[in-house]
Amino acid sequence: MFSAVLGPVGRRLTYRRWTYLVLGATLIVPFTLAAVAIVPPVLHLLLPSDTAEQPLVVTVTMIVAILAWAAGTSFIPAVRVVEGTAARELLGAGVPVQASMRATNLEARWKTCQWFLVHIVIGTAIGGFTLYVPIALLQSFVAPFTGEWLLVGDANLRVPVGWQSAWIPVAAIVSSIVLVHLVNLAGVGLTRLSQVLLGPTPADHLAELKHRAERLAERNRLARELHDSVGHALSVVTIQASAAGRVLAKDPEFAQRALSAIEEAARDALADLDHVLGLLREDEPGTQPQHTLADLDDLLGTMRLAGVTVQTEISGDVPGLPFAVSTEAYRIVQECLTNALKHAGKVKVTLVVKAGNDVLEVEAANPLTGQAQASRGGRGLAGMRERTTVLRGQIKAGPDNGTWRVKARIPL
Asked: Do both 284 and 227 map to the same domain?
């Protein structure tokens, strides 16, 4: 019972909440001064003198004017940032992170307006009690001796002198404790209200989902880049290093060609890796590799050094293809040749690249081996499908009468 009554008095969070509420009281001061200076003259211009001087009319008009000016001010973007930051620092961890971020839509701005008005109204009430209760508490200790209490200017409350007024200090102390509880409850209420008024709106949730989808798409793109570039190079390096090791003493010339293929593949891998790492660094864009179908001869040369025989049939305006189409088509060809080397060995690959007026066709075929039949369906095929889908194209891959065939169609 004792801790329940005096618990909030000893908590630091209570006084942080108190500070935030008193800030709300100070925020209303400039609007009040403006209303005092502007509202009476305007009322005399618009209304008869008797009506314009009625206390009720003046009071209601000033309250409306104060709230209207405060509401208009709340739509300034910086107001939400300042209000939200102060709320997160002083009201506690229950205030959402979005409170200190700029409003990005009309719904968030309107909720900020509501929060600002609630803050200054509740803050003004708490501020008034904060100003008055401590004065009443101090005066209560001398009231039994002087017979006067609650002195405000010339006004005061007459009380009996002596023990008959001994209850006054007790009542003042209880009032002070009640004020602390009131502050604590107001702080808890504002913290909960902040989750509604300063939390994410449906538009914010939608933007967050869109951002996550974009990040996931970017991660998938980086995974494709690493698989198709560095993965290709590692496949060539692994196979050629193994072959060179087996024939190094018997066929030095073949071993030399294998080492040349390893060197070329490693050089390309370094360039591609620099590009991918540059995408991961926010401060360094990295080097953009210009691997398109225009670089097909270099790729075919590397594969031939690796022992793959490639028969090509290229037709149409391949150099004039859009950059995005040419880049993705290059990666598809690279993946097809790498898969042939990795899964079927040093076989003959037939490659057809046909650039038409409205579609680009890429087809690669190689003989199936026992190892190849047991190894299909990995990450590379999924990557090729993703690349083709992004460009609104189609791709088919699978066995066809003892041949593994990949055929992609990409609209131009």
From this structure: yes
Segment holding 82, helix H or strand E: helix 77-90
Q: Are residues 319 and 260 in the same domain?
A: yes
Task: Tell me the C-alpha to C-alpha distance, in Å, between residue 400 and each of 61, 370, 373, 407.
Answer: 86, 14, 12, 12
Cβ-count burial of 248 within 10 angstroms (0-12 exposed, 13-18 middle, 19+ buried)?
A: middle
Which of 76, 90, 119 is closest to 17 using CA atoms?
A: 90
- Model's pTM, two decimal places? 0.56
Instruction: Tell me the H-state helices in 226-322.
Output: 231-247, 252-280, 296-305
Residue 374: pLDDT band with limits 50, 70, 90: very low
Q: What does the DSSP 8-state code read for residue 293?
A: G
Per-residue pLDDT reduced to its tens digit, 153-198: 566 677 778 888 888 888 889 888 999 999 999 999 999 999 888 8
136 and 242 assigned to the same domain: no
293 and 241 housed in the same domain? yes
CATH, residue 314: 3.30.565.10
Q: What are the tens digits of pLDDT across the range 107-150?
A: 889 999 999 999 999 999 999 999 888 888 888 888 888 877 77
* Beta-carbon count within 10 A of 385 CB: 17
Q: Which of 167, 200, 233 is the last residue of a domain?
A: 200
Given CA atoms 89, 90, 91, 93 in this order, what sign does their dihedral have? Answer: positive
Question: Domain check: are 46 and 107 in the same one?
Answer: yes
Torsion of CA 27, 32, 33, 34, to 10 degrees: 100
User: How many percent of the chain have pLDDT more than 90?
Assistant: 23
Mean pLDDT of the chain: 81
Full residue range of the structural domain in which residue 17 is found:
2-200
89 and 215 co-located in one domain? no
Cα-Cα-Cα-Cα dihedral sign, residues 19, 24, 25, 27: positive
Q: Give the end of a domain, one of 175, 200, 225.
A: 200
pLDDT of 360-369, one tens digit each? Answer: 999 999 888 7
Looking at the structure of the chain, the number of domains it has is 2
Beta partners for residue 359, in sequence order = 411
The long-range contacts involving 391-396, CB below 8 angstroms and separated by at least 24 positions, are 391/324, 391/325, 391/328, 395/332
Judge if 195 and 213 occupy the same domain.
no
